[in-house]
Amino acid sequence: MADKLEKIVRLEENIIAMEKEILKYQEMFEADGVITKEEQGQLDAMFSTINAVVKELFRRKAALPPEITRSVFMAGTYEKKNYAPPTKLGLFDVSLNPKNGRLEILSKLNFNFIDGAAADFAGKKGESNVWSDKEKKEWRKAYIALIEGRWGGKYHFIHPDMNNVTVYVDVEIEHADAGWHYDLQVKKIPKGEFEQSAVSIHDANPSTDEMVATLDSNDLKFVTKDASVKDKQKGAVHEYGHMIGLDDEYVDSDPGTIWHETLVRDALGTVLVEGNFKDVMSVGNQIEKQHYVTFLQALKDVTGLKKWQFKK
């Protein structure tokens, strides 16, 4: 199988090279103003060759056995604990029920509520720097509802070898006192104020890999990050994107680098460009297909099947 795939890749590379060669010759001939009979013959010969290669490519692809059959897929068990996407960011459990197509993305979070500085609340009538039990419970409940609602069920996946199999994403947030994926530190700050939130990247040494996410008490509310974009963002929704392996898409301290761009290019054939846009990993609120690429990669890895793709 690997040898056949390698030959197909080489054929595709040859096709691309020949197309470039044809364009080069065509431009050269047209630059003279008139294409002679001899030159037209050369172009026709090139087109004939490329058509033969394309036919051979389709023949070889058709001869490949399916990656999996539906019956084998349905009988499988698919689950992986502590899945880390190949993007330096993100950690979650992933499991797939082949019977109903439910891909569960489970984030276990230790909700760690941190009291604010008393000085920051001086003169703030009716506000306390200390989290009450009621406030903790309400904030946690609102956070879970927000993240599950915003991130789940946006896009679906299919496999070309299996008809009538559609996978949907179900994002679940679970409070965990132990065995959590992230220590979610939520600092209390005065209403209407802002503090920088963050999610830690993976440590090169797994034994010292402390997964921490920091939010503040106002991160469940919309704020304007860039007035020119005309879209608002909830910090908690953006930061959860980091917890599932997505990098910032706005221009940051590491310009030109977006850690999930390779997954986006492989899955969608598009190139990410940094900037202030309406996308959730930029400064807006829109969750696009590019923000589901770590879920797609998790599906590929948990099933061992590489042909999964977005449903159009």
Number of strands: 11
Structure class: alpha/beta
> What average pLDDT do the residues reach?
89
Count of runs of 4 or more consecutive helical residues: 7
Helix/strand layout:
Layout lengths: L1 H30 L5 H27 L6 H5 L3 E6 L8 E6 L4 E13 L18 H19 L4 E4 L2 E14 L6 E6 L10 E2 L12 E5 L5 E2 L9 E2 H9 L17 H8 L24 H11 L5 E2 L2
Parallel strand pairs: 3-5, 3-6, 6-8
Antiparallel strand pairs: 1-2, 2-3, 4-5, 4-11, 7-8, 9-10
Helix pairs in contact: 1-2
GO molecular function, one term: metallopeptidase activity
InterPro entries: MetalloPept_cat_dom_sf
Keywords: Coiled coil
Account of the 3D structure:
The protein has 312 residues and is α/β, with parallel strands linked by helices. It contains seven helices and eleven strands. The protein folds into two domains: 62 residues; 241 residues, no CATH class. Strands 1, 2, 3, 4, 5, 6, 7, 8 and 11 form a nine-stranded mixed sheet that branches. The protein is elongated and about 90 Å long. It starts with a helix and ends with a strand. The model has no long low-confidence stretch (mean pLDDT 89).
